[in-house]
Amino acid sequence: MMKRIILVPLGDIPSDLIDGLKNDLGLFRLETVVELPEPEPAYAFDPSRGQYRSTMILKRLKSEASVEDLILGITSVDLFSKNLTFVFGEAEIGGIVAVISLARLDQSFYRTKSDNGLLLKRIKKEAIHELGHVFGLNHCNDVHCVMYYSNDLVDTDNKKDDYCDLCKKGVEPFFDNQGDDISRRAGFS
Ligand SMILES: [Zn+2]
Ligand SMILES: [Zn+2]
Known about the structure:
It is globular, with a radius of gyration of 16 Å. It has helices at 15-24, 54-64, 116-134, 153-158, 165-171, 182-188, and strands at residues 4-10, 31-34, 45-46, 51-53, 70-75, 79-80, 89-91, 97-101. The chain is built from 6 helices and 8 strands. 32% of the residues lie in helices and 17% in strands. One zinc ion is lined by residues 140, 142, 145, 147, 163-164, 166-167.
């Protein structure tokens, strides 16, 4: 059975953002399902930093997951991991779970006017970046490839919302870019 992508809102995420993301993930050949929202991940809060531990969120999502599915958590709380000041998201490389944060993708974080179109573009890039990790990809040196590591939003805005040719090869089985059907191909080989 083909895996599904399960989108899990962690907290109150505007439905137009969820719908936009679900639509964007149509570029994969996996069905995307939106789950009912879970509460904000209070269990992952670090009071000394005022931020949330992304790794702990991944663990929780994984413990709730069905092995057949891929889980993408989406939250508006600010995430950090290990010694990093913040992260836009985190994923289990070659695994089944990922999480992205909207906090630092939103212009309002930088005290400028919110821009929904720009926010949706950034969400798409971060989501397909983290899903790329779930599909087994590591970071890419091509600054325009979506798998390029974003140190800050300039990197995010500079890269495309797509994989470079090399990375695309790695995610090909999950990608809907050609007519040929992998289940059929597998049946013949
Ligand atoms: Zn990454
Ligand atoms: Zn690449």
